[in-house]
Amino acid sequence: MQETTANRVAANATSSFTEHLQRERPDLMPFGHMPFNQLLAAGQTTAPLQAPHGTTIVAMSYAGGVLMAGDRRATMGNVIASRHIEKVFPADQYSVLGIAGTAGIALDITRLFQVELEHYEKIEGTLLSLDGKANRLGAMVRGNLPMAMQGLAVVPLFAGFDRPAGFGRLFSYDVTGGRYEEQEHHAVGSGSMFARGALKKLWRPGLSEQDAVAVAVEALYDAADDDSATGGPDPVRQLWPVVYVVNRTGAVRVPDRDLAAVAGRIIESRAVAQREA
Amino acid sequence: MTQQFYVSPEQLMKDRADFARKGIARGRSVVVISCKDGIALVAENPSPSLHKIGEIYDKIAFAAVGKYNEFESLRQAGVRYADVRGYSYDREDVTARGLASVYAQSLGAVFTAEQKPFEVELAVAEVAQTQEADHLYRLTFDGSIADEHGFIVMGGQADKVSEAVAAGWQGELDFAGAIRLALAGLVADKETTTLPASALEVAVLDRGSETGRGTRRAFRRLEDADIVALLAEEK
Asked: Is A25 on the interface with B (CB under 8 A)?
């Protein structure tokens, strides 16, 4: 009798918000509350769902931390679904995540991930380790696999400052939740191959924070140049990429006026050069 | 077979209440003070890791006295309640009033239905834009709920501590003043006139967390060094 009570208490003790939600309110989960075979059946009988997709995210390390930037466009087929969408978010004080893929599910996974980290911190009284955070995000992407097989995939990019180690780290994921630590820089989304090409030429070790911001904005500019689903800087509407830097003191969003200046310089330099690209 | 004796409901409730009161009075006191800068929560607690004060949500904090395992399970339940609510509605829909009423119901249910009542007393504090809009709720072992003004003192020799705090309380206090006042209250039932920072657990709900620290989470736990620095400030 005693033992079963103890076992029950131990089994119910969880610091994970996702686990709690799965147990108590499965209807609130962004994924996984419909059985796998039902989802498959639903997918077979109907046409592929049209939903807004988020596009390009770039991330890189620099001297003192990591940086992540995302463009502002969401597309639905050939239509621009949103020019204002934000796809890079602070996950907690020392980490950020960017999302490419089905926007609706991605935004919910982001929200769940933010609560997951804060919940752990409040229950346990300490921050989760950076590897712990990266693993939790991988588990969430894995949870979305049935939806991904319906064409509603979400692929995040995760970056954070590893406080005990004293440097920033980058993680990429595949749709099955596989977690890969990336060196130097990485990009995900439809424009990622163009952004990566740009990053390979622009990135160098020991970039300062300001230079890293300029490199990120230029890589997104190149992605937008060749990928119709990625939005470039928009001086007409005063829309600039969302850029976060994460260093020892935490995650900070780069203010729009700085980004306007950086984007302005890039557009100007390209116009002066009078070349095709 | 043993004979069941008849016990009147009045006697049963009185026995349970006396039992819970004794348990709560055995511990050390906790003081929660609303002031100009926000809400200060101060506990006499020699352990640096077994907390009596905790963060529940953006603007809401929790303080407790009594049995650790009982109030810790209530604290965790509160964090879960707040996080589920904020996740399913919106962050601003999580209020201290809602949380306090859930606590009142669970404490009331345990008091009447379980083998023994919870030997705890809780405070739920919510910081607002202005001091007048701050909320302080006191919850007792039987599920009673009280909306307090200015400050709450719980546990230990609460009467003596409360007297000392009431004498010095005023709305214009800053955090340093509020913590000094709480400290003066906590030593009211002792021989000494001061407590070392290592024997204190201090946290604040910062009224200006958005402007000052750029975060909507108002709760901040003060380290020993912060406490020493605050107490050393000019009076």
From this structure: yes
